[in-house]
Amino acid sequence: MTNPAKTFQNPMMKSGADPWMYRHSDGFYYYMVTRGNRLELHRSRTMSGIAQSPPTTIWLPPSEGPGSRELWAPEIHFVQDKWYVYFTASDGSGDNGRKVYVLENESANPAQGAWTEKGAINTALPGLDGTILQHAGKLYFMYAGYGHFPEYGSAIYAARMDNPWTLTGPEALLTKPEFEWEKQGGMAINEGPCFLVRYGKVFLIYSASTTWSDDYSLGMLAADERSDLLDPDSWTKSDHPVFAKCTDNSVYAPGHNSFTQSPDGLEDWIVYHAIPQSEGGAGMRQPRMQKFNWTAAGYPDFGKPLASGIDYPVPSGEYSEETDDSQTNQPGGNVQHD
């Protein structure tokens, strides 16, 4: 047993895009990041200990056909007493063959037990970056569907779910690229939807512009928590990015994030990827994390991306945790593919 350090540094790992961190009621953090040809899951008692926790490969794709190529943007969720992973994959034919797939695991510990494929989500369009929102007794699915808005790119659509792998009813277009900051890098992009629910509001945070552009950034929509979340008129869109590059700190293209809280539940944290140098490209994306605050009006204030290589305080509640992260993620999950 070891006592965790009181500081951490960004980046969390040397490489890894589309980081997803989820804090579960069992006291563990579950972390996923794309590796391209496999899905890996980390399990840790602390946020700052994720990098030291050994990964478990939970999914290997089939050798060919649908879902066999370009495994991107994995997210783990706990829904209706089971674990689900949503990830993007293609058949190798490009954007038209890209869909969001779902895995299910009934084990209490998702690093163990069997993961079974439930198939591709029945979206109206090819697309990527699927996520879910459990709110007011309803289950919603959001994803980035391909289109022309007005240049080739993607927009974010939403629909109700009949179960964690099946959509029911029509899809609603919630946000499309409209501002110049959403059209950087040669394409008009809205992708990577993610949610915060707080102070009577639902916030939809999304990534804008191309992920390889310095100007990849986060945008935001806000809706009253009692409103119809499938009605585009329920949402108010910010006309400026809410989290963007910081040249002073040499952090570029911050985006495709997740949200979590400190072990004691007193702090809110954003986990995201960024590029450490201008024009570094998508191959240099690194996972990072930092605490954020709230405005007096009840809106998230993400501040600026923190500089690399500097000691920052770990999330509150980690000091008293005694854990050895090398022991928290014992291999044993059944790796399957069709």
Low-confidence segments, given as residue ranges, are: 326-338
Number of discrete domains: 1
Q: Kindly report how far apart the N and C termini lie.
A: 39 Å
CATH architecture label: 5 Propeller
β-strand percent reads over 45%
User: How many distinct beta strands?
Assistant: 22
CATH third-tier fold name: Tachylectin-2, Chain A
Top-tier CATH class: Mainly Beta
Computed over alpha carbons, the radius of gyration is: 19 Å
Which structural traits does this protein have?
338 residues; mainly beta; Tachylectin-2, Chain A; eight-stranded mixed sheet; four-stranded antiparallel sheet; 22 strands; 0% helix
How would you describe the overall organization of this protein?
This protein has strands at 7-8, 17-23, 29-34, 39-44, 56-59, 69-79, 82-90, 99-105, 116-120, 127-135, 138-148, 152-163, 166-175, 188-198, 201-208, 217-224, 235-237, 252-261, 268-275, 286-294, 300-301, 312-313. The chain has one domain: Tachylectin-2, Chain A, CATH 2.115.10.20. The strands form 5 sheets. Strands 10, 11, 12, 13, 14, 15, 16 and 17 form an 8-stranded mixed β-sheet that branches. Mean pLDDT is 93; it is low at 326-338. The protein has 338 residues and is an all-beta fold. It is globular and about 45 Å long. The relative contact order is 0.19. Helix content is 0%, strand content 47%. A hairpin with a 6-residue loop joins strand 18 (252-261) and strand 19 (268-275).
